Structures
1.
Amino acid sequence: MFQPLLRIAALAASVFAVALAPTAQAQQLTGVTDTEIHIAAWGPQTGPAAPWGAVTRGTAMLFQMVNDAGGIHGRKIVFHPFDDQYNPAKTVAGVKELVEKAPGIFAMASGVGTSPGLAVKDYLMERGIPWVGPAAGSLHWVTPPQKALFAMYPLYADEAKLLVRHLVDKEGKKKIAIFYASDEYGENGHRGAMAELTRLGLKPAVEVSVNQADRDLKSHLLKLKDSGADAVLMWVNPTHAVITLKTAAALQFSPQWATSSTLSDAVMMQAITGGLWKNMIYASFGELPDADVPQVKKYRDAFAKYAQQGERWGVFFMAGIGFVEPLVEGLQRAGRDLTRDSFIKAMESIKGYKGVMGRVTFGPGERQGQREIFLARTDDTGTKVTQLTPWAEVK
Amino acid sequence: MTSLLRVENVDTYYGLIQALRGASLEVQAGGIVALLGANGAGKTTLLKTVMGLLEDQPDKGEIFFDGQPIHGRETEDIARRGIAYVPEGREVFRELTVMENLKIGAYARRDAIGEDLEGIFRYFPRLLERRDQWAGTLSGGEQQMLAIGRALMSRPRLLLLDEPSLGLSPLLVQEIFDIVKSINTDGVTILLVEQNARMALSVASRALVMERGRFVLEGSAEEVAADPDVQEFYLGLATEESVKGFKRYRRKKRWR
Amino acid sequence: MDILGNLPQVLFSGLAAGSVYALVALAMVIIYRTTEVLNFAQGDMAMMSTYVGLGLLVAGGLPFFWAMLGALAFAAALGAFSEFAFLRRAKEPTVLGLIIITLGIEMIVFGFASWKWGGDPRDLPTPLSPADVVVIGGVIMSYLELATIAISATTISALFLFLNRSKAGLAMRATQQNRAVARLMGIRVRRVEMGAWALAAVIGGIAGLLVGPATTVEPYMMWDPMMKGFAAAVLGGMTSLAGAALGGAIIGIIENLFGFYVSTAFKSVVPFAAILLMLAIKPSGLLARHYVKKV
């Protein structure tokens, strides 16, 4: 008889409490309860950068594996991924909503893209919310190092340097052109390549930038061709890479292409270019998906069990695991008494950790966890990938 | 003998304003019926109501064409039944050629139109000269001819003519009315709305007078022309000059 | 940089790009003239038709020609349905209201495509490889670009013939000029309007099927061509079919000239700068016809 009344009263009371104490609560939202750890991530599932959205789904699988294995010190991870379409405005809105609504977010995992990440970086850092493994290789994450930001993605600039060094030293290329997106990602690659060319005493054949919205790249490719470049460093998004190769083919322009780890999913690129992804040299931040190493094998086997229909065991899905493995490791090391401070301390204790990516080392003042990369190359058919160089840090 | 067009107790509203108040009218096949009335009496509204051009109108009443109800029908269906309407202000398709305007007039027909074109050009030889010109480049009189010609291309049984003399020189008005008369002689029944009452009555067999949304007088053209009020208000006879030189109506109200 | 030596190549590339913009512009003008609506869903309706073509080709296993024909049939149905289901429902619509309706259609179509086919770009395989080229007078012309220009020119010519020579085309022009009087002629104007939407969607669909093989098929594939096409339509005066076709070619060409000779970074801004200039000099557009009403 009284139960419905009681329930209504309880509901009213809780509504009242929420209405009364939003500010007080906002300060206390840690995203950790006795049984749960709330972690969020943004990643484009639609829009131009959608192929990189597999990162977020990979992260989701890792958390699910952790939960199924019993969680972390009695807590399950509750994962809040959302689609920001690679649109920084949407990233900000999504992050704020999750962070400011009970129970809050303990930490951010992965998070695709330089521009979306930059849009929320200060917001997260001001609140001391840890962020592990931004899925973008920008210098901005670590200059200057932030207490709560643990970068995993090797620097784009380092990739560009290694690629230029390889093209000049090993492939004998002399005229290297730089084709880059006019955003943070493209600029980072551009800067790295320029630095390495300068070190080698060379000038670029031409520097051409491309806007995200453009779909007619004929004038861009004509410029590249006109420069007489024998190699082109291509620092663009997947769609632009497709249009670039198709347009180049139509202009009978066939330099040695080299590109960043963001286009390292050779299987996908071969499919969406209709078979033009041949003899592509690219940087890689993680083991090749079909690598015969135990760290990769473990997840490859789990993938068969966990993955949704239509999902593919590709570079980016695996990267979503690799970027976030140290986060799980940090949570384990922090123990049952989990606070943001204890977590950050635990993260700083990670040295030489090897998961599906290169070796990871954090420490007090050291926030770029991974610096190792290697170069790979697709063969004449575009289907077979071989590792060109061993894992190495770029000096 | 059934009437070709029968309008019964029709009320039409423009928003909150009532433009037709229980208007009733019959048009027998064969003649020319002139519809007289002052500005705003509801003459054009009546024609538009017949053609179904006013959305959700008539509000009340019934309209029959050739014994079949047509009120509440789509304009295009009413037109296809054999009523052609030449709207006030001509409304030719300005960016179509004269020829195209005539062809579009025969849009609903499937048979050959060559003979009809010849007929139109016989009525209006000037249209033949200008056949490949855009209609928008024609003079007012030529546009009126084109509008009538376009209407005839559908081989209508009833032709509704709205103010064919508007803005034309007296000479052109005479020419147009001569042709209206011969169109009628060729077998098309005509309902003619006209401000120029003298001209209208000169060609009409019957005439009706409208005031404030209803018919107030009906008869043969001669009877109507002989009515003293018609003479005073519409034919401009028997008026006296006021001291300031303006025309002054002796009796302002009669049928209200 | 060989300034003049590259000019023919740049012009050719610009024309190939511009012929796609011309199709989008024509589609927009057809709808604008018939129903006075700026159809901002034009691009995404084309995108959806392209996906349908891809589906018929890859999943359905149809021969290329039939798959593309199927895509255009779908485009016609989508265009007619949009007019019937959304535009016609508007009671006493304002210009702004109608634009918002088309934006709504755009969101529905884009949302549906993203949900149904995901965001991953896909390849639309054609019988032509991008590497099949002929070289004429030093200008490298890919078969795909030549086909694009040829198909676009054929479509435009067919459209002009249809509008100027056929009875249905005449009815469409009459409806565009004076809807009420067109009804008096016995023209079923709602069908004409629905037909105009279907026709525009087919022309847009052809643009989509030409963009797909040169780039990728993905939900946002038509955003850029759509904006350029809109720019071309405005440049041409919004009501002129010839103006739209010419506007498309002009935008494709100046954009490529600017991209090659000045800066690729601001290439996409140029068409809109051209519009601003146009509006300042001749607000009615390149070929819009206006009457001085005779008294």
2.
Amino acid sequence: MPEETKIRVPAVEGFFTVDNEPHLIGGRYKKSGSYCFPKNLGGSDPNVSDDELEEVLLSRYGKIWSYTNSAYPPPPPFIASEPYEPIVIAAVELEEEKMVVLGQVANGYSVEDLSIGMSVEVDTGLLYEDSEHCYLTWMWRPLPEGSNKDKK
Amino acid sequence: MEDIAILGVGMHPWGKWGRNFVEYGTFAAKKALEDAQIEWNEIGFISGAITVRCGYPGYVAGSTMARALGFNGTQVASSYAACASGATALSVARGQILSGACDVALVVGADTTPDGFLSPNDGVRTDDTDWLRFHMVGATNPVYFGLHARRRMELYGATSEDFALVKVKNSKHAVFNENARFNKEYALEDVYSSPVVSDPLRLLEICTTSDGGAAVVVSSLDYARSVGVHDPVRISAIALNTPTYPDSLIDLPYLATDSSVAATPNEVGFKESIGKHVYEEASLGPEDVDVAEVYDLASSMELDWYEQLGFCKPGEAESLLRDGSTSIGGRIPVNPSGGLGAFGEAVPAQAIAQVCELNWQLSQKAGKRQVEGARVGITANQGLFGHGSSVLLRR
């Protein structure tokens, strides 16, 4: 089946939405207003025993806190492409949530293209595929310089 | 808290020997008993550091080692805290001694490791952050090291040369250590010609996985005196810290930091809190430390530890390295053993090996890598899932 007709599904459900404007799915404690990602693994706040966790969509935009790559294919349970194309990884600071979230950088970027403080948006990208499905993960996509989206 | 005495230490050389981890553990244990001049039958408590890579015998490391040394009815426990397992096992033994449950204990850890990256156990666990970070992101351990190294470059102007110089320094120390896996002295060019693993870090700057074993015999000070040891190297403090919410530094194996929306991050960061704990427990400060063994899982992390343990202010680690302060012969030698860069990590044995090295240093038995006049030493170590450990030794 050609890639464009395959069904696009998250590699694991519940981490991000699959639509034109993908969002990370996080948790928010109703009383404290604090966030966590992923939502089902919580944070480490000792003061939330009586607080209720609600599912929220996290900000789509953030700034690169740091970045690196994996020049060698990561071991399972990562499913590496063959031939392996080094994956690039960024830790991104979300301003509103005041947290840093890890993720791959969208395909086509190398570490040379990145800098700390660069604006990025959440996108989805191919993690691996079989004959019928494209399995997706969330990826950080660098925004063109001067883009007004990073204010949102 | 009262001190305990170190009566003896022992190690099996680190390498890629491919044999049963029990062999390394019992080898190290027998060496430590011999060094202590204590018979196995006199040990009241055996404290094993667990390995999760050698099947069930690894999960019950204490009793596995006890059986290999000969079941004799001694008390036993096994501890797991990732890279901090050895320090946890030591702390359990200290608790037994200081509570009066036993007089003398044997602490032992050993591992046989697979090649390549450390990775999660088989299976699909979508609620396990360690599984998720590999599956969804491909975030190996070196990825986290690379993120922090890049951050250090941004914050303090560290360079690839600074990171490489850590490797060069430690390799010089390791030339004189028969227990280290790599005894070769590396030059800057060697580091630069090794391939990048996780930018900006290269293969020679990232610790590999090794086989090895380490053991320590510890006792109450009274027991030490009763066997004629009046001036032992003492363990004055042990830290087994967890982080404080909100932890704002991304670290393995997590996909995100805590959010700082509802609370401000503590002024003392997680790794800083580890050293702070032992300094307070021992009523000493960084200025009292003569020698340190720190967890250089990557060369850049050694520089972080200089600051986290208070040897210098944030941003000054590169100067401390470059002016020779942290080399043997300098003001505060760090990793005189050669560190993880020269050993490779044998997870449950590593924190115990740090204690072995400092015991040799403080008892002036470190041969050509001796730090002259060393009387106070500190170890630092961090395991994933929020385990930080430190041991403070003095004579």
